[in-house]
Structure prediction request, 338 residues.
Amino acid sequence: MRTFLILVSCVASTALSAQSSVSSFLGFQASDAYMLYSAISSRSFQEHSNEVVLQRGHLSFEDAGKFDYDQDGVLFAYDLCPNTASDEWVDVNGCPQRTLEAKSIQIEIKALSCIDSADGSIRIATSDHSMSYTLWLNDIVVGNMEAYADHPFEINALESGNYTLCIEASDASYQKRCYELSIGSPAPLGVTAVEDLNKRNVRLELTGSKSYTLRLNREHSIVDSDQIELSLSPGLNTLSVEGELPCQGIFSTTFFVSEEVRVYPNPTQGQTQIHVGGSDPLAQLTIRTTAGELLQQREITIPSNRTSVIDLAGFSNGIYLLELRGRTVQSTHKLIKE
Prediction:
């Protein structure tokens, strides 16, 4: 005897993205899943007496075969098609029931829906154009695919979420084929930036997208790696990272790489030399007390040998904070006056 009941038959499962998926099953109705069988004993059978609900295809009563002549799981008393072949699928009445071929239907999620938007869409196509189809989305008819029309059908303006799509053939002998669809919002952009100013680089760890658009200063690049290392230039570096979709967000930050600054001698009794790397011709010098009191602020010229001299002869003995700022210079030093 054949076992017929299959509530969910996962014929195909195709992940279209990290957030979206499609899985297929046969769309049996509740009335298809159960049959009213009369209680049977090995000695007697009385039609319509002592009816109980049993799952079709699970006939386990003694001598049940005597009352299901074509062995299709439907008792002869209820079988409107009592001579079906032993390998045929049948409906609740015991009549032949065909299924839409999974390979003849193509389901595609064309676009992901961003958070708080409704730009998701589903595309349905079939290679069997001999009959028309009615399309159901979450138990609501959303359209029809006409016979011999070879163009796909699209359902647009969908929000992220789970959907049940069923395709019903115009030929009633075919069982519905249904699909569980998931349209997910893309993951937010994730960026971890670890800078190493001594090596003048920044290491990025990226998540949320298949590819990323990087803009570092005036340079522009697209990468598909989730780990990348970038070289930084002296001075202010501006970095931005974007995913494939605008709704994933944009990461932006800045890094300042200072040219080397050396102050010597330190401690000093008066004059101190400041050596500034790079090529800046000017820099702003600020001298403060450790309590933050401003004592001096002026612009100094950096000569070709990159060394300038300042004189602290008029300052009291103590500890001072010497700050130097320029286009590619940003440095603070503790200077001791003895």
Summary: The two ends are 105 Å apart (CA to CA). Confidence is low (pLDDT under 50) at residues 1-18, 29-63. Helices lie at 30-33.
